[in-house]
Please model this.
Amino acid sequence: MKKNIAVLTIITVLSGFFFVSVYNYQLISNIKSNPQRNSSLVKIIENLETEIESDQVRLNEMRAKIENIEILLSDEQKAIQTLRNELALQKKAAGLVPLQGPGIKVILDDNKDGLSDNPESNPNNYIVHYESLLALVEEIKRAGAEAISINEQRLITSSDIRCVGNVILVNTARIAPPFEISAIGNPMLIEKYVLNSSEYDFLQSSQIPITYELFTGDQTITVPSYKSNITFTYTQLAN
Model:
C-alpha cells in the first residue's frame, strides 16, 4: 500500500514538471520569435533553458525511480504467487482440499439377507467389521492411491479406523453401512491389488456383499477434504 502511494506521488510530481516545462517552452518560443528583445530577455531565456535542462534531469531520475518501484512490485507479486502455489501444494498433500481424478470406489455392506435367513446364527458373521476396512485401505495404499476416503471421511496420516462397541469410527466420525471406499489413483492397479488380496477372498467366502466401480478416461471420482481438527501435542518445528 505504501509503495502504491509512493508511485502516485512520483507521478503527480512528474505531471507538475511536465506542465512547467511546456509553459517554459512556450515562453521561450515567444521570446525568441521577436528579435527586438533586449539582453535582459536573452538572460531570461538562458535561465529558462537551464531550468528546463534541470527539470529534465529530475524527470529522468523520477522515471528511473518509478521503474525501480515497478520492478520491486513485480518481484513481490511473483514471490506472493510462488508462496500461494506452495501453500496450495502443501494443502493438497495434507488432505485439506478436495481432489478428483481417475480411481475406484469399493462398496461393502452387511449381509442382511443372510442374517434374516439365519436368525439363530451369530450376527457378527454377517456384518462388515472395521478390520476389513483397514485391510482394504492398506491394499489400496499399496497400489499407490493418492487420496482415499471412507463414507466422505478423508484419510490422512493421522486418521484412524476403529470400532467402539458396534460402531465404526473414522476420524472420530461415526459411519454406517454401506461403506464406500473412494480412492484416486491408477484404477487398474488398485483393482488388481483389491481382487488379489486375502481380504477380498475372505469377504466373498463370508458372503459379505462387495462391489466396485472403476473411474477411467473422462470419468473422475471426488475425494473430499479432511474435515476434523488437526492437533499436535508433542511436535514442534525443528530449528
